[in-house]
């Protein structure tokens, strides 16, 4: 057991506030239960076996992933009910079959006849009825068939007749990330629900099975008022939250569990700049708040304890340099931040910032307890 | 010895074209020699011991790095002449001293009296005269003292009298990344040269030593016409080049040695979209061309062999999805890209894209030879 304290960490590095993370997880777990749906958390944000233990209802899942590398690592750790929520390409089916043979029920996602034919063929070849969901598009954001697309029934029939397992339908309301406020997000949630429920009705009306009706994104999962017909809810970034989510009022800035610890390495006094060692390599290049009402630059500046310093953001970033300065029109008092001062920066986008790091340093709920270190993985 | 072919690779993954990389390296090596300066390549772009061997003049260096983790890993590999070109914070001096004790001559960078005092104190405490360069600012881009700043002499004296080793002055013309064309970049190069030479003159005029006069960025290193008074040149991204460098005419698109191999995973025919598995996790969130004359989206699309497909870019990206579509006003013919088609995407910013990956898959100069795999590291 290590005895690492915050003051022992070399900067920049990634911090997780365990108490805030637990609160975020508990909030959505309770909400999903109140709506009568199973929560299938997306592990793409954390990519950590230790973090997954906090968020999963059971040892084996259910879980959502965005890469086969995630599926392989989580399966190795005993998580065996996994949805791979990115459209399957035929050349990846060998790895899908290998995961099934290793005891992981990996569900694939698709939205085309060509994919359905490839999954059916792989099912026949392997003797494994590969479970598959059909992706439904509710808002033109990215992938999926619309609920009324004639191909929906064709895809369902190819899977069902071809030896695969037709599990159901899935929708992700990606446009909800641009909807500001609970009311607007509730509209997205209802649109998402409507799309998957309509699609499931069409499949069942033609005699096809559709046991799972899956919906969700972090904004819609927190805003949905009624999920009649939906069986499962997905969300990912809520575990940590971030400035983009705060900017659309899904959470408060106080709900952000992830930050980057940084040290002041210089000043440009005439320009009012403080230079720190959190550049884009530590923060990521994500500038999700640039298109929001308040542009938070490369992140909001907090003191070492995590308290927001009013007025200060990281206005620009190079690879290993962050430039801290006030918001454009800020005219309040600013603290002195001498060389060596340690600060925390709250990120635009938790998924992107976490991806720049190999470890989480976890500030424990118990004051004065040592920090845990969780390994974070990447790759595909 | 592995026998990996391009067709064996699972996507997305990172490719390096060895022939192009060698050509880029040779071009700048010859140019630096013609200007009579030592080239000290920046290893922050590649972060790979194998790649470093191509770019370094000698087994031991000289090299530039952006993190102490780079210094530690490269020192372990026998590279012992290293400049850490990010302003030093006092809490990192323990690791600097440890590197010296392990046989690495690590040069630190600073631009303030507080840093100079800390380096002098660490030199005294450790009995090691820590070599230090003073950072000079030629264009208001980021860090450094202007050549006429009174603090320059104070910093030099504190280092020289305090037990550290005053090595010289260093300038990085960061604004040159916004200068379009060789002529404009030559102006930045002369401004950068002028700033460090003026600073070195001031130090020497007061009797202080200044053996090293270091300048450079990829744009200025390729554009400088005369480097009188400069002893060493630095550049990093030229090894791979990227769309940002092509956009300011430092290189051609054909000079880009780095790409991401991707597979088509779907289509949204009514919107004219092809969906691939290179999202921002594989490409990075860097959108450096967004402010250039031609916005290349998340990257330029090539066929599997690396030939640019005219008209196609990645117009948007989610974590594991890239959306391929034509430039806004493109009206030429577009190829059919069915499910499973493999493509390469050229990146906006090689440093940022490479940082998303743990390996380089190296397409060898010799046709039909197997691909090498180089480990890439991250962290601080």
From TrEMBL, chains A, B:
Belongs to the DSD1 family. The keyword Methyltransferase does not apply. Residues 257-364 form the D-serine dehydratase-like domain. Signal peptide: none annotated. It comes from Sedimentitalea todarodis. InterPro entries: Ala_racemase_N (IPR001608), D-amino_acid_metab_enzyme (IPR051466), D-ser_dehydrat-like_dom (IPR026956), D-ser_dehydrat-like_sf (IPR042208), PLP-binding_barrel (IPR029066). Its EC number is 5.1.1.1. SUPFAM superfamilies: PLP-binding barrel (SSF51419). PANTHER family: D-SERINE DEHYDRATASE, ZGC:162816-RELATED. This is Alanine racemase. Coiled coil: none annotated.
């Amino acid at each position: 057991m290590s005895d690492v304290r915050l003051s022992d960490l070399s900067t920049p590095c990634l911090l997780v506030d365990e108490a805030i993370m637990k609160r975020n997880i508990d909030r959505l777990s309770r909400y999903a239960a109140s709506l009568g749906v199973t929560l299938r958390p997306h592990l793409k944000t954390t990519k950590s076996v230790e973090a997954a233990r906090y968020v999963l209802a059971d040892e084996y899942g259910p879980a959502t992933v965005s890469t086969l590398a995630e599926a392989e690592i989580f399966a190795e750790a005993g998580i065996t009910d996994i949805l791979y929520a990115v459209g399957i390409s035929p050349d990846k089916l060998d790895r899908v079959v290998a995961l099934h043979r290793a005891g992981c029920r990996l569900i694939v996602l698709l939205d085309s006849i060509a994919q359905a034919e490839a999954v059916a063929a792989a099912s026949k070849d392997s003797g494994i009825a590969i479970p598959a969901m059909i992706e439904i598009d509710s808002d033109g954001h990215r992938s999926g068939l619309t609920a009324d697309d004639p191909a929906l029934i064709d895809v369902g029939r190819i899977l069902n007749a071809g030896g695969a397992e037709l599990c159901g339908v899935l929708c992700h309301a990606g446009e909800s990330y641009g909807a500001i406020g609970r009311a607007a997000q509730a509209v997205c949630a209802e649109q998402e629900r409507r799309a998957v429920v309509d699609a499931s009705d069409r499949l069942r009306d033609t005699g096809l099975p559709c046991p799972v009706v899956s919906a969700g994104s972090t904004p819609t999962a927190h805003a949905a008022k009624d999920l009649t017909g939906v069986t499962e809810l997905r969300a990912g970034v809520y575990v940590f939250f971030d400035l983009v989510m705060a900017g659309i009022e899904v959470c408060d800035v106080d709900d952000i569990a992830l930050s980057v610890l940084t040290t002041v390495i210089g000043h440009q006094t005439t320009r009012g700049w403080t230079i720190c060692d959190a550049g884009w390599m530590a923060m990521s290049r994500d500038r999700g708040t640039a298109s929001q009402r308040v542009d938070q630059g490369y992140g909001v500046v907090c003191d070492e304890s995590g308290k927001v310093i009013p007025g200060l953001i990281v206005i620009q970033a190079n690879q290993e340099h962050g430039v801290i300065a006030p918001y454009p029109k800020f005219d309040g008092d600013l603290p002195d931040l001498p060389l060596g001062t340690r600060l925390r920066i709250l990120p635009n986008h938790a998924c992107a910032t976490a991806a720049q790091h190999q470890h989480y340093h976890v500030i424990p709920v118990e004051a004065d307890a040592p920090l845990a270190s969780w390994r974070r993985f990447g790759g595909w």
